[in-house]
Amino acid sequence: xxxxxxxxxxxxxxxxxxxxxxxxxxxxxxxxxxEPLAPGTSYSITGHIxxxxxxxxxxxxxxxxxxxxxxxxxxxxxxxQLRNVVQDKWMVLGxxxxxxxxxxxxxxxxxxxxxxxxxxxxxxxxxxxxxxxxRRFTWSSERQNCTHTRIDRVFVSKEWDLEFPQFQLAPASxxxxxxxxxxxxxxxxxxxxxxxFEAHWLRQEGFLDSVKKxxxxxxxxxxxxxxxHTKLSRCSMALxxxxxxxxxxxxxxxxxxxxxxxxFDVAQEERQLTSEECKLRVFLKSKLLGIxxxxxxRWRQRSRVTWIRQGDANTRxxxxxxxxxxxxxxxxxxxxxxxxxxxHDGKAKILLDHFKELMGTASSASxxxxxxxxxxxxxxxxxxxxPFSMNELKxxxxxxxxxxxxxxxxxxxxxPFGHFKFKDYAQWMSRExxxxxxxxxxxxxxVPHVIYSRNGALAKVVSAxx
Length: 466
Prior knowledge:
Layout: E1 10-16, E2 19-25, E3 30-34, E4 44-51, E5 57-64, H1 69-82, E6 90-95, H2 112-125, E7 127-129, E8 139-140, E9 148-149, E10 152-157, H3 158-163, E11 167-171, E12 182-186, H4 207-215, H5 224-268, H6 275-303, H7 315-329, E13 334-336, E14 339-341, H8 344-359, H9 371-374, H10 390-398, E15 407-409, E16 412-414, H11 422-425, H12 440-443, H13 452-465
Parallel strand pairs: 5-6
Antiparallel strand pairs: 1-2, 3-4, 4-5, 6-10, 7-10, 8-9, 11-12, 13-14, 15-16
Helix pairs in contact: 1-2, 4-5, 5-6, 6-7
């Protein structure tokens, strides 16, 4: 039933007839043992899970709540007693046979008093409930005019949520059961690699200098929009590099300060610290407090909690809110014609195709002007973009003898073109120096009057059009 990876690595609570029964099993990467100090109960079983890799551990409790109201009261009281024997990192999951809100049941037959007791237990235990995405209810009576309820739940302590932040609850098919299986999956989170401004940067030394140095670099452009874009891009790159170096230095300083303070604490048990040692310990602790304040500011921005003033809550609170926000915004899966897609790239492709279909594609123009009907003469001007031939250059230069044309180049007066022979001129000018008229302005006129022969043909076209 469990498969070879689980083997004998499980604990269980026997069922009573067709009611109850809980099985908690772990893969070979973990070890699970029953909690010996847990009070005996017919509705739950508590285990101790150890990671074989790093030897970290946490507690887990599987429940199967009773259906009778008087037994439900005893069930909640037994779960309260577990809080004294389990670890801070605690998970409680299973069929509670209880609801805490009216919208968790499909009809109005509600026991408000029991709902209040369940909510009070959740609050007193300081537990966080994992929201279920994709389903409203987890149990169905599977009859005509059936009743739907959400009685299968997963609760974790705040310490557990801080240790394992990237998990999300997803439903599965009921298969042969009347209960909806719920699966705790690790979210496929892609970290954003672009630029994000951190509010705590404004308080750190070196921030303004990095911005000023990047902003004052010269931009070789006369376009104001491009200049602004370039300056902002440079500032973002400079701030990212500055932040990476700052983080490395902060981690190093924190580790050194923590180690020195620990050594002072150990030494103080054997002797009195000198005045210099006391001053150094106070200084290091003030540094660590400053680093902690910056970290709290950073997590406050990530949690998007703006109704609490800075300094009124600790970092742990903002960690929990940030984890909750990440879990809420994560899309576990999307469906396409081929079925369910869970990978990040697959979901991105589905969203891209969807919005492409909504936006449509650009269509080519289907209407053209009939110049013959309007009566406008048309001319073929493709020859203006063709390279100059050597014969064309010779004719252009020889044709300017009658004008006695003078030109000025690089501050020197040249004699009329008539004073040069073409074979002498061709020794220091190549055909590539003479551009077609449509591209002459792009590189500057080497000898602009050479292209007058083509412009003359163009002038005749313009005259004919008028």
